[in-house]
Structure formats: C-alpha cells, structure tokens
C-alpha cells in the first residue's frame, strides 16, 4: 500500500460520527443538519432541463479538455465577473468539481526529487483536501494559523527562510472555509511577493466566491488581483465550482484557470487520470455559467438567513458576519466537541467542531473552541436551529 496513506487523519465527518457514537438526540426535536457545506437550495429547473435534454451525449466519450462551448462559457463568465481575458484553449480547463482538482493538482506540480522534502502551505483551520493532497503527493504540509485576533491573516513569519525555500505549493481559500475571510488586494500583493521570491505555485480555492452579501463589493479573485497589480498569471491557478454558486453539488462541475504552462501539464496528468466530465454535465454547466439571475436569488436567500441568525447567535456565541461564504465560525463557551455533542443530544442540531478542521501548531489548534455552522438549510430551519442553539448556549 502507498505508505503516505498512513499519514492521513480521518476525515472530519468520520471524526464527527465517532464523537456522536452513543448519543441519542431528544426525540421531540427534528434533526437540523448544519455541519456539512452542502447547498440545500433547489437546483434551478433550467439546469436540470439542460442536463436531461443532453442525455444522448452519454453515447460518446468526452474529451478531458471539455467542449469548446463550455470553455467559452467559463471564459465569458470570468470576463463579466473579474474583467479577465482568458484564452479558452490554454488558460481554462473544466474539472469534476473543485475538490478533485485541488487534490490532483498537487500530484501534478509537486516535485519530490529535489533532494529535500517539498512543503505545501495551507491555512489553519482549512479544507482537509489540502493536507491529503500534500501527503499523497510526497510532500509535507505546513499550516499557517488563521486567528480571529489577527483578522484571520496569515502569519508568514511562522516559517523559516529554509522552510520557505522548500515550499512548492501554497493553497489559499478566499472566501475562506471555515472563517469566511476574503483576501484583500494587499493580502494578494504580499502573497505574490513571496511566490516571486521563493518560486512556489499558488492554488487559489474560490469555490465560495459567489456567496457574498454586498452586491457592490464581490470578493476579489486571485487572477483578478494579479491583473489589478499589473502581473501575469505565472505560477497562479484559480479553482472555481458550480456547486455552491448554482446549487448543483451532485453535478460535480467546476473549472481551473490561470497559468497556461501549468495547465498544459495539468491537462496531460488528467488525460491519464481519466477524469473527463460527462457530456450531459458539460451542457448543463454551459447553461449554468451563462445565467446570473439564479445566482443572485441564491445570494439573497443566504443574505436573509445570515441577517436572521447571526445577530441572535452572536448574543450567546462569539461570532459575527463573515466576509463571505455560508458559514458562521462561532466561538464556544466550552470545548467545541462537548458543545457539538451536547447540542445534538439536547436539541438535535448538528454542527461541526472547529478542532476537526485544524491542526495543532506551536501548541495551538486555531479551530479549538469554535464550531462551524453551515447556514445551508431552509430559512425556517435556520431560524429554528438558531433558537435551539441559543437555548442550549444559555444553559452553559
């Protein structure tokens, strides 16, 4: 077996099942699950229609690069959203959701044969795929704590010059999971300067980019930041997805865009990996990227839920409005694992302990004593869950 498999920790939801073993929720309450970042708004009918009318495409093998119409639709969206002019032939590549692409990207760009163990840097707390991708690519992860008292900013000083010299890949997530932190243009400028100095590649995970609260100020993207700073896309690749934007997590559709040289090699890897997108999914994706009305409606639903729940939860837990995304990152008055277990037992609301999303660095797990609350359920369920969370917290 691959020896790197032994380095992997159980996935957060495996830890959650183990934590909840033996817990019997109070039967008077219906379960409300706010633990997993799975959109629960209805999939737009026009996307389902596009999928169904394209089912004849199942008779054909898809190409790894995807059909031109899909790459062109993505390019048009990038132009409207970020004012980017990307070449659909060389700078855009469809993928089966950002998750598989974030993982396989590391297998493409990490070079373990340079006489030292390469490093992969990522936020802490973080999306667990980054760590697994690093280990299984023959690298070692390094975690930069994102602490609320520092505005969830990276502490770049945590790595020595020797460690920075071994960094080959830097995963950044903006808007962040779980904190909701959006990188500013100045944040990007600092990160680009480090990339220039040490030569590492930046993988910008932007799967939450379309869930935000101020229509006049959408989150800045990595490629957009590079353009605003007068840079090229060298050593920079963005990862985007339809899952959150269009409420189609089961469709597994997204794209990567950026440095053409890197994407050429990523396409080569993917050709052998066998991960071409199904033709009907490609056609449904074209329809989704070409429409913004459903995305605005989606944001309005999240905006209403956050406006309802955040002020009330903040009265009993340490939280506030995130910059973007659909998570509340809430500080708990007791250990996060005890809080999650008690909330399930007494009120049948499921949230994710923050410590499951972090790793201890210098004696600190930045996810400890936090819970991630995903406001993905209906407005009525989020209101009900808010009431139950308040009742439970007030008893502590």
Distinctive features:
396 residues; alpha/beta; Aspartate Aminotransferase, domain 1; Aspartate Aminotransferase, domain 2; 2 domains; seven-stranded mixed beta sheet; three-stranded antiparallel beta sheet; 12 strands; 40% helix; globular
List the helices and strands and how they pair.
Blueprint: H1 12-19, E1 32-33, H2 45-52, H3 68-82, E2 92-95, H4 98-109, E3 119-124, H5 129-136, E4 140-145, H6 161-166, E5 167-173, H7 185-198, E6 201-205, H8 222-228, E7 236-241, H9 242-246, E8 254-258, H10 260-273, H11 279-289, H12 293-314, E9 327-331, H13 336-347, E10 349-350, E11 352-353, E12 370-374, H14 379-394
Parallel strand pairs: 1-10, 3-4, 3-5, 5-6, 6-7
Antiparallel strand pairs: 2-8, 7-8, 9-12, 11-12
């Amino acid at each position: 077996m691959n020896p790197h498999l032994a380095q992997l920790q159980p996935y957060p939801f495996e830890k959650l099942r183990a934590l909840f073993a033996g817990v019997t929720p109070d039967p008077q309450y219906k379960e409300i699950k706010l633990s997993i970042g799975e959109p629960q708004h209805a999939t737009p009918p026009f996307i389902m229609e596009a999928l169904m009318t394209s089912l004849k495409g199942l008779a054909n093998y898809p190409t790894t690069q995807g059909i031109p119409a899909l790459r062109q639709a993505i390019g048009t969206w990038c132009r409207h959203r970020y004012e980017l002019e990307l070449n659909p032939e060389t700078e855009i590549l469809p993928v089966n959701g950002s998750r598989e692409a974030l993982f396989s990207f590391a297998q493409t760009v990490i070079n373990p044969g340079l006489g030292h163990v390469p490093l992969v840097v990522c936020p802490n707390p973080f999306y667990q795929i980054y760590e697994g991708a690093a280990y299984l690519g023959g690298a070692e992860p390094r975690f930069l704590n994102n602490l609320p008292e520092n505005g969830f900013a990276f502490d770049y000083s945590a790595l020595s010059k020797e460690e920075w010299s071994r960094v080959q890949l830097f995963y950044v997530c903006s808007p962040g999971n779980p904190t909701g932190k959006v990188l500013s243009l100045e944040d990007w400028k600092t990160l680009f300067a480090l990339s220039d100095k040490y030569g590492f590649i930046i993988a910008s995970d932007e799967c939450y980019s379309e869930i935000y609260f101020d229509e006049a100020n959408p989150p800045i993207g990595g490629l957009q930041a590079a353009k605003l700073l007068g840079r090229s896309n060298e050593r920079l690749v963005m990862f985007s997805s339809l899952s959150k934007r269009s409420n189609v997590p089961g469709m597994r559709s997204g794209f990567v865009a950026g440095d053409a040289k890197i994407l050429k090699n990523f396409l080569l890897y993917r050709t052998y990996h066998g991960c071409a997108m199904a033709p009907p999914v490609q056609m449904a994706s074209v329809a989704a990227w070409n429409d913004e009305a459903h995305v605005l409606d989606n944001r309005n639903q999240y905006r209403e839920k956050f406006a309802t729940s955040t002020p009330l939860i903040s009265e009993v837990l340490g939280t506030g409005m995130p910059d973007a995304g659909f998570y509340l990152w809430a500080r708990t008055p007791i250990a996060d694992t005890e809080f999650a277990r008690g909330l399930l037992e007494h009120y049948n609301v499921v949230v994710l302990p923050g410590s499951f999303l972090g790793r201890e660095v210098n004696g600190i797990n930045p996810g400890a004593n936090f819970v991630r609350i995903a406001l993905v359920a209906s407005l009525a369920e989020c209101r009900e869950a808010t009431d139950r969370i308040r009742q439970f917290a007030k008893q502590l």
